Amino acid sequence: MSRDYEPTPGQWYENLEEEESFRVLSVDEDSELIEIEYLDGDIEEIDLEAWHEMDLELTEEPEGWSDADEDEDEEDEDEDEEDWDDDDEDDDDYDDDDDDDSDRDEY
What are the DSSP E strand ranges found in the chain? Predict the structure, then answer.
């Protein structure tokens, strides 16, 4: 029995015929293309007609799944924090220079 689910970005599905899980990344209604990502990270575009021919089941996000986009966002946040730390070091260097100048003025 075929199940006819509409493609929903972020939702996980299992292709029962191929025994593969994937999630929908995006749906372009104008071109009727659906971008999907498999567990191994492969990304594929399929058309709406091919989507409706698939025997799909809704499924949960697989255990241990790591979203690459989320990882990149976390790395960006870490880099921002590191940049902030670097700025602090520059400020310390600047303060040291000020101290040296003030020492010269006293003599």
Answer: 12-15, 20-28, 33-38, 43-47, 56-59
